[in-house]
Amino acid sequence: MTLAMPLGQGAVLSSERLWRRDLTRYPISPSARRLDQQPNSSSTPANESWLTQATSRLEQLGALTYGWDGLDGLPIKPACIEAVAQFISSDVVLKVETKPDIVPTSDGGLQVEWHSQLIDLIIEVDPNIESSYYLSDLTTGIEQEGSLHEATDTLATAFVALGYQF
What we know:
Layout: H1 15-18, H2 48-62, H3 78-88, E1 101-104, E2 110-115, E3 119-125, E4 131-137, E5 143-147, H4 152-161
Antiparallel strand pairs: 1-2, 2-3, 3-4, 4-5
């Protein structure tokens, strides 16, 4: 599914561009190649520094053990880490200027959060690799939430507000 709203210069947000299908392309392990060290990359990510930081953060979160939150926090499932790694390294997300925060959830999932003066956007990947979003437009007070895979129009608008680099 593609958007009716282009992101500029022929770029169109689609679920394929947000979620890469090849889960083995970006493995996360101590001996794995980091996301920011892709061989033969034809283009340099626009936000290489935040990708490097986010990749390091994912590696740290992957090392959390049971009770990491001082209570009953579960370790982060490797499939969640892989899904978030794919999402943040997608060509669309890499063009967003605002650095995301990546935080664990106590049930073993992850949230990717962007906060700006215009919007708050939270993408959650739960332990079953179901993904959802929450968007708060701080200028209008309108809040939205739902399944991530059904929200490409909403995400396109959010990414533009976060400083999408055309």
